[in-house]
């Protein structure tokens, strides 16, 4: 008799496809709208990029709230609501006519995007997998990795119509894609008679290995790797307990130091390339190359995360990212885009599946959503500083170069910080 596919993998697929659309249109694709918006309104780069900094500030405050909603109502409802709100936000942005209205519409869209394209999906996957958690997270984040193919399509769509029509199309498309997919998500396997990883409830493994409701984690494992002593619900840390651990704050600091480059590139990648004379079509392809090469980091580091020390993997990824950002700072011709995407793509993407898996290993899933939301404060600071600082440097000097040189150094500083993280103890 043919064995059925474990439903957890369908949850991973649905969330990955939502990530694919959201990443390609909002997180990575919105850089295609940056110059057309500037050209229509004549705002400065720093003023326009401030919307992205405000979005990061909003995400920092809303992250814990979204985490609480995930823990209270489940990932499915939060993702569905986020898709609806984000779609409305895209439609609103397409109708703005002033800088304050642009800020308000962008913040509204980012509120929905934070719920639809973020921690809710990671919480769902963390619930469905234990021993295969890092690999499942890698496949989930691959949705973001493949989404770069959307950016050239957005560049073409804007050139054929205009940025307003293109954004409205994106909003309606999100509803058409995201609403059905969000209904595929299920919150926890136990509610449907499953155990994590597809373990047969009648097998010995259900009793001694991966039964998420009855077993206890060996937190002293040096890399947070899953053992047969796995705690998920009854022994996991509360948010208050996590806040009292040194590891929590070091994880935030390391993500902040590496995140300034990532947040700045999400806004200024195409503007920097066109600023040094590279055609906008090739610049759009650079987004595709960056995200496609990120699949190497997402899948490779995610797979290795179930077998090796996750902290060492994050540090190795930071080395690649720092090199890539330094190359990006000195791009003067199109051929330099190749080494940039080959280093930066795997470097920035490698920690994406590894960090939430490490969080679940260290703190369990009892308060996964809230703890993840609180850890998002590291990204909040990075998201505020990165885009705004890069835009200001370009306004003052006429070039982004020194901004990204500084971001490369900041990424390098995250390496000793992540290596200093130790498994938390109660």
Q: What is the rounded Rg?
A: 21 Å
- Could you name the CATH class? Mainly Alpha
Output the number of helix runs: 19
Query: Which percent bin holds the helix content?
Result: over 70%
Taken as a percent bin, the fraction of beta residues is under 5%
CATH superfamily: MFS general substrate transporter like domains
Shape: globular
CA distance, first residue to last residue:
47 Å
Number of strands: 0
Topology order in helix (H) and strand (E) letters: HHHHHHHHHHHHHHHHHHH
Which parts are unreliable, with pLDDT below 50 for 5 consecutive residues or more? Answer: 204-234
**Overall pLDDT confidence:** 82
CATH architectural type: Up-down Bundle
Main structural class: mainly alpha
Any idea of the CATH topology?
A: Growth Hormone, Chain: A
How is this structure best described in words?
The structure is a single chain. With about 425 residues, this protein is mainly α. The protein has one domain: Up-down Bundle (Growth Hormone, Chain: A), CATH 1.20.1250. It contains 19 helices and no strands. It is globular and about 65 Å long. About 5% of the residues have low confidence.
Features:
mainly alpha; Growth Hormone, Chain: A; 426 residues
Task: Summarize the structure in short.
With 426 residues, the chain is an all-alpha fold. 73% of the residues lie in helices and 0% in strands.
Helix and strand topology:
Elements: H1 7-27, H2 31-41, H3 45-73, H4 75-93, H5 99-116, H6 119-128, H7 133-146, H8 150-160, H9 163-182, H10 204-208, H11 239-243, H12 246-275, H13 280-304, H14 310-329, H15 337-349, H16 351-363, H17 368-375, H18 377-397, H19 401-419
């Amino acid at each position: 008799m043919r064995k059925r596919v474990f439903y957890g993998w369908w949850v991973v697929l649905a969330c990955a496809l939502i990530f694919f659309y959201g990443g390609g249109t909002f997180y990575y694709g919105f850089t295609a709208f940056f110059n057309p918006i500037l050209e229509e309104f004549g705002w400065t780069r720093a003023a326009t990029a401030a919307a992205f900094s405000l979005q990061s500030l909003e995400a920092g405050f809303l992250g814990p709230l979204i985490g609480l909603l995930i823990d209270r109502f489940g990932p499915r409802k939060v993702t569905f609501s986020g898709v609806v709100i984000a779609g409305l936000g895209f439609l609103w942005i397409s109708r703005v006519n002033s800088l304050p209205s642009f800020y308000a519409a962008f913040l509204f869209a980012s509120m929905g995007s934070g719920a639809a394209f973020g921690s809710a999906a990671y919480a769902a996957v963390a619930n469905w997998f234990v021993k295969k958690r890092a690999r499942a997270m890698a496949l989930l984040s691959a949705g973001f990795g493949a989404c770069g193919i959307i950016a050239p399509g957005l560049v073409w769509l804007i050139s054929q119509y205009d940025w307003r029509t293109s954004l409205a199309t994106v909003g309606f498309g999100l509803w058409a894609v995201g609403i059905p997919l969000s209904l595929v998500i299920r919150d926890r396997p136990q509610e449907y008679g499953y155990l994590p990883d597809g373990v047969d409830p009648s097998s010995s493994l259900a009793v001694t290995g991966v039964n998420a409701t009855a077993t206890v984690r060996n937190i002293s494992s040096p890399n947070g790797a899953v053992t047969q002593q796995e705690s998920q619900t009854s022994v996991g840390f509360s948010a208050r307990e996590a806040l009292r651990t040194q590891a929590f704050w070091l994880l935030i600091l390391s993500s902040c130091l590496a995140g300034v480059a990532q947040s700045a590139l999400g806004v200024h990648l195409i503007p920097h390339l066109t600023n040094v004379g590279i055609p906008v079509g090739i610049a759009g392809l650079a987004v595709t190359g960056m995200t496609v090469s990120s699949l190497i980091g997402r899948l490779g580091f995610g797979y290795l995360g179930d077998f090796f020390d996750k902290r060492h993997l994050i540090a190795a990824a930071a080395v690649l990212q720092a090199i890539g950002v330094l190359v990006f700072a000195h791009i003067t011709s199109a051929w330099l885009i190749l080494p940039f995407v080959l280093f930066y793509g795997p470097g920035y993407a490698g920690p994406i599946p590894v960090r939430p898996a490490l969080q679940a290993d260290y703190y369990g899933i009892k308060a996964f959503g809230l703890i993840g939301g609180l850890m998002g404060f590291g990204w909040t600071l990075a998201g505020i500083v990165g885009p705004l600082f890069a835009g200001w440097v370009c306004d003052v000097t006429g070039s982004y170069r020194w901004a990204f040189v500084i971001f490369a150094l900041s990424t390098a500083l995250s390496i000793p910080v992540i290596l200093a993280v130790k498994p938390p103890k109660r």
